[in-house]
Hints:
The complex is a heterodimer. Chain A is mainly alpha-helical. Chain A has a domain at 20-56. Chain A contains two helices and no strands. The longest helix of chain A has 32 residues, at 2-33. By secondary structure, chain B is mostly helical. Chain B has one domain. The radius of gyration of chain B is 20 Å and the shape is flat.
Amino acid sequence: xxxxxxxxxxxxxxxxxxxxxxxxxxxxxxxxxxxxxxxxxxxxxxxxxxxxxxxx
Amino acid sequence: xxxxxxxxxxxxxxxxxxxxxxxxxxxxxxxxxxxxxxxxxxxxxxxxxxxxxxxxxxxxxxxxxxxxxxxxxxxxxxxxxxxxxxxxxxxxxxxxxxxxxxxxxxxxxxxxxxxxxxxxxxxxxxxxxxxxxxxxxxxxxxxxxxxxxxxxxxxxxxxxxxxxxxxxxxxxxxxxxxxxxxxxxxxxxxxxxxxxxxxxxxxxxxxxxxxxxxxxxxxxxxxxxxxxxxxx
Lengths: 56, 232
């Protein structure tokens, strides 16, 4: 019974961890590759072109 | 779990991102700077006089290139978090994740995040004609998602239904088509544009394979370290 509870809690933690890592990854790529704000666009300009993100 | 994901992702992303940045600065940046001479009108393709292919490109610009290094490392760290989330799910389902198996994860990541969107939205040199940037970004994300799920189904699917859906997911974005400009207005010679696209893909493939290898390696190492700490 105790083991069962521990397992369920563990997998819930795992799902949250996995989702957090994936969402964090998408957020970082959105900022470095997609947000069009002027300063950010200029700073990341060459990287966006070289990495194949849609730029301009 | 979260610590293991974040630590492995930071190490793998920083290492692969730094190598990607150096390769880009050496192989891609000169081509981009050359294209910018045509974008700005400093050089004119098919003008009155023939233009030499050898131009002074200005060398290293510490601020501009430094920012490029930082943003490349960040971008690859972002890729690493997504890749590692996928690796962790696969490991729970019985896959073995190591530095060596990471190579193929990296290659698949390159296809999903770089090659699949680039197949219809080719890496652009500055100055090319392109459709609305928002429309292209939506198409980019949709294609990455579709190719990522497609590749997952090819790797882990067990029947023809899964593989058939995978083929549809990989093909659909390109059959539907990417947002295209109404007219072509690019002032840059096609030779420069073609070299830029192949260099961008080449550097991307190398960097992604290293990212997969590093991610697999650090994932294993962090796992062993955490196990050792818990056992102690």
